[in-house]
Amino acid sequence: MTALIRSGDARLTDATVTGHKFARQELLRRAGFRVPEFFCVPVAAFDAVARDLLPPAPDPGGEAELAAWAADAATRLSSAVPPGPLAAELHEAATALAGEHGLLAVRACVVADADGVGEDGVSDAFAGMTESYLYVRPEDVSRRVVQCWASGFTPQSILYRVRRGLSVGSVRLAVGVQVMVPGVRSFVAFSRDPRTGEAACVIAAAHGIGEGVVQERADVDHFFVDTASGRIKSEVVVKRVMMTGGDGDEGPAPRPVPAEQAEQPVLTDGEVRRVSDLATEVEAFFGLPQDIEGTITPDGAVHLVQARPVVFADRPEGPAVRWSNHNITESFPGLSGALTYSQARAFYRLIFRDLYRRMGVPDRRLRALEHHLNRMVGLVDGRVYYRLDAWLALHGQIPGFPLVRRWWERSMGIGGDHRPSASDKIRALFSVPGLVARAARRPGEARDFLRWWDRVVDQSTGMDEWTPERLIAFYRWLWAEAGRRWGVTLVNSFFLLVWTTLTSAALRRWVTDDEQRLLGGLLTGGRENRSLLGVRSAIALAELVCGRPELAGRIRSCDGEGDSAEKIWADVVSGRYGAEIARAAATHLHRYGDRALHDLKLEEPSPRQRPSMIIEMIKPMVHGGLTVAGSRAKELAARAEAERELRERCPGTVRLLVVRALVTGLRRAVKTREDTRYCRSQLFGLTRQVMWRLGDLLAEAGRLDRGRDVVDLTVEEVLGAYDGTLVDADLRSLVRARREERSAAAERPDPGVELTTPLNRPMPGGPLYAGGPAGARPGPPAPEPATVAGDLQGLPSSNGVVRGEARVVLDPSVSPESCRDRIIVAKETDPGWLFLMMAARGMVVERGTLLSHTAITGRLLGIPTVVSVPGATTLIKDGALVEVDGAEGRVRVLTAAETS
């Protein structure tokens, strides 16, 4: 009997011998589908070679050990030589299959076990976990077969199996050798929508071969076919790149799409229906929704290359919990350590309890909702998320909340459009007197809060000399007082929503349908808030620096290798460049040293810990010659233009006075919010000082390897080391384990903005994406990368039109200098981004509202800004030339012709 299995052989349809991939292809071929001819190297050939080469499989344990074993196994298999008879038969069969000038495709497939679990199986696609080689010459087939065997043992493939609960020692592979069809267009089609399971065919198509679609290396058109009506919806892009055969041994390579095909759909409507019908037929044949791959040859013939069951995202059964990090990522972006999360959780529990108390929610009701207060924020795969059912249950207790719920949902990124019912409105009427009384007390309470807080900050100097007992006592007192007082800041935020609702309604009714654009200009001007004062303090420092040419030159050219920011800062505060600059630098550090990127994340330093950060912050200001007067002039010009438009558009003196009164109240509420947000940065700054100092003392006592290891302990564990309340006294082990968890999470894709988990099942302990634990669903996938010019629409936030090069910032720990004179494109920002924003010419942000930090800061700095631009960081490539119209909320990706 020959070693190879060819078409017509009954064994070819046995998935335990050839794998699901090739068993299905043979079944389809026999049923009359146009499947390219192929033969298979069965799993027995792999077994014969691998049994003497593979090292013993380790027990599932540490990822590092498994990855090392996988790499060793792959290396050994890569050096294998097929036995002489198999090699000879392979060459003979490949030559006959390819014909005189033909080429072949060589693909691997992990064969199914006795339970049917294997690559392209019903329960798990294993998609992309093994290798395929295209445009293979017959004489190279033996080498590619060996490489296919080795591809089953990549570290990612082995770790994938472990996460799915499968044995690493059971990896066995078959290899298919198939005629390489000379397709000029290719597609992937799902017979059901893979996101929802609805009866709609989803097709992705590109010029060239299918690798361009599967590996996202070509420009792709999308087609959506409603199965019931046959209606087609198309999303067509300009095609510039496709994948085709490479030169020599290179395999597929990117090639430019011919100009005449670039703007035309890859598929005509007739071809879309043919592909949709094919997907439906394959689904009917197998009795399951199918994911098919195919190619179209120059003669228009459609060839079916692969088919596998659609593996839908696991859906929680029964009630589900929704999670969102839509605007909490402004405060806690990316991964957060144990110290940061434990403090964030305490922060939300304490301050919102105080809010609800101040808004009139009875204590007995708060006690009944204590479990919701404890779980307002969760840690999901190392990232901080809001638990939305807890927020709704708690906020729903606030009198009058249904009237502002719509704005609150928008700020939380829920995307709802809640409309209060008649009964909601009636109940809200009864709460109006109490709300009015609280609104009247709000300004005085806010002033009292700010005065109290300034006293706290002034009394907390010299912590480096404090004993652990004093540090802990201060920390306990600080947070007890915050829990008693901080609700004032949230009461202001509640009434900020009320003012926003009323002001927007008045503008929309009496002035313009585009009320958000006008409101953006009206909110500028007025008294400076603390965040803006910090910015202008830095600008003033930069102005002084520019008056000292030697110092300005050092700052412009410092790069960390020769003259460093640390050296410059030391010279500045020592008085080398004069007492005035030294005093201004010291004053800025004292007043604004807690403001930095990620200033609520306790694992990140602020200028308080690393003062030389101030030099890095002002560097682009020194380059750009910013002035305080110029900053104020931009803000006042925007306000004057908005006031002029209001006067022209608003009929009647009474209406004009009402609108101005509402805008004035809203402007004051915004100022108070920004003032107290700066206080929040200081609150976490004081906490950072306490915890880092205790970490240093723990390291000195031998309990930690280094002081900074404290970021991987919870607050109560740090304090418990002194209070005697630790359950696990081995702090080093805790740090080591959490650091490994954080490192592993950093290697996984971001779970997304929204997640859904089952209500009555434990939270998954690992990644929340395909291949992660069942029962967790990530939010919708990110949009396909754009390669075309066009308009994106968002909320107009700060007037002005500007063109420039995009600076896509996914990790804001970039230098402000890298953003100088560019347009920042980001998912969201927090107050610590101010120094990046000041260097930029404009801003485009995926998230946010008219009252988000980005929108407010754009107006204060006078730079064109658009927020709430879905997919901006994906659709705009770093370095692309864009035009931002902050008045219209439009972002235009410019064509080469427009920029020439």
From TrEMBL:
Domain of life: Bacteria
Comp. bias (Basic and acidic residues): 740-751
Occurrences of domain Pyruvate phosphate dikinase AMP/ATP-binding (ranges): 25-314
Chain ranges of the PEP-utilising enzyme mobile domain: 821-889
Xref: InterPro entries: ATP_grasp_subdomain_1, PEP-util_enz_mobile_dom, PEP_Utilizing_Enz, Phosphohistidine_dom_sf, PPDK_AMP/ATP-bd
Molecular-function GO term, any one: kinase activity
Region (Disordered): 740-788
Gene3D superfamilies reported in the protein's UniProt record: ATP-grasp fold, A domain, ATP-grasp fold, B domain, Phosphohistidine domain
The protein, known as: Phosphoenolpyruvate synthase
Lineage: Bacteria, Bacillati, Actinomycetota, Actinomycetes, Streptosporangiales
